[in-house]
Specification:
Length: about 325
């Protein structure tokens, strides 16, 4: 199917309307001048070699060239044959913790920023798969369903912030359940969840879900962000650490035990995000070793055949033709 890469340039087509009106104005003005000069038959005799039809043709050619150039600027294109071929891949749902404890800085520059770096770098290793995104804190919500468009996925991850989730907490169970509902329920394999969190709050609902996830062929790989010793939490722009109701500084600690249990019960692996490249390599290796299914149009980008060069050439030829068309009639003698 044909499409435009830069649809905003199509607004340039509106310039054709005032140009057409200007042409009509000039034609009408010439008629008025002809009448104002007096003897129209004499004027016709004096201008008998002038061709109004060729004048219109020249204008139509110029207008056509402008039209074609605007279409070329918008880059009319078509997916190349084979872009829809089916490749082997899996479905991967990312569950990213956006609780305020993710602002802790025991991993630099912060738990949240390190998590984003991990996820976006992991996307580069999953070119033949589909990915989706669930964000959670005190509640979970589906930010992006499964897609092969990794550029959009990276954009959503980069813009994720605890400010987007007004209800705080760490409801891992709800996030896992929402990820499960995003998969094809008819399949019993080809599915994985990547849970990225500090697991600060114990969530018994998450433990209850593990057998159900395993029965549905879903492998959960967990990534722990933070340190066992913990760290105070300072919100961006704040000058003091977060305190509890008693005025004591809140220390957020990584809950590794629960994350290890979640991974173990579903056949996945646990990774501590103290070394981002190693974590990416290990998680990617697990995903790449899973059984694959046919995924249509997979890949980070689509390949297109662009008509830009051809359209520019056509516009150039039309303009050259316009130059060589005179406004006078050909002399029959």
């Amino acid at each position: 199917m044909f499409s435009f890469e830069h649809t905003e340039y199509l607004y340039g087509l509106f310039i054709i309307i005032p140009l057409a009106l200007l042409f009509l104005f000039v034609v009408r003005w010439k008629r008025k001048v002809k009448k104002a000069l007096g003897d129209e038959q004499l004027i016709d005799q004096l201008t008998k070699n002038y061709s109004a039809a060729r004048y219109r043709l020249k204008f139509i050619l110029i207008l056509s060239a402008i039209f074609v150039l605007i279409i070329a600027a918008a880059n009319l294109r078509k997916p190349v044959a084979g872009d829809k071929e089916k490749k082997g891949g899996i479905d991967v749902m990312i569950a990213l913790d956006l609780s305020k404890s993710m602002w802790a800085q025991d991993i630099k520059p912060s738990r949240l920023e390190a998590s984003k770096q991990f996820i976006n770098s992991l996307f580069d290793q999953l070119s033949n798969d589909r990915v989706g995104l669930v964000l959670f804190a005190g509640r979970a919500f589906l930010q992006m369903p499964l897609t092969t468009d990794f550029s959009v996925a990276k954009l959503y991850v980069s813009n994720a912030s605890p400010d987007a989730v007004p209800m705080q907490g760490t409801v891992i169970g709800n996030a896992l359940e929402l990820c499960e509902n995003s998969f094809n329920t008819q399949e019993k394999k080809y599915k994985s969840i990547i849970l990225v969190t500090d697991g600060e709050d114990h969530d018994p609902h998450a433990i209850e879900l593990l057998q159900q996830l395993s029965d549905n062929g879903i492998i959960v790989n967990t990534v722990g962000v933070g340190s066992a010793e913990g760290s105070p939490i300072m919100e961006p722009g704040a000058n003091t650490y977060k305190v509890d109701v008693n005025g004591e500084t809140v220390i957020s600690k990584l809950n590794e035990n629960e994350l290890k249990q979640i991974a173990q019960k579903t056949g996945g692996i646990y990774q501590h995000l103290d070394n981002i490249p190693a974590a990416i390599s290990n998680v990617a290796a697990v995903l790449n070793n899973m059984d694959k299914k046919a995924i249509e149009g997979s890949g980070n980008t689509k390949e297109y055949a662009s008509f830009y060069p051809l359209l520019v050439l056509i516009a150039l030829l039309v303009l050259i033709a316009e130059i060589f068309i005179p406004e006078t009639k050909r002399n029959k003698s």
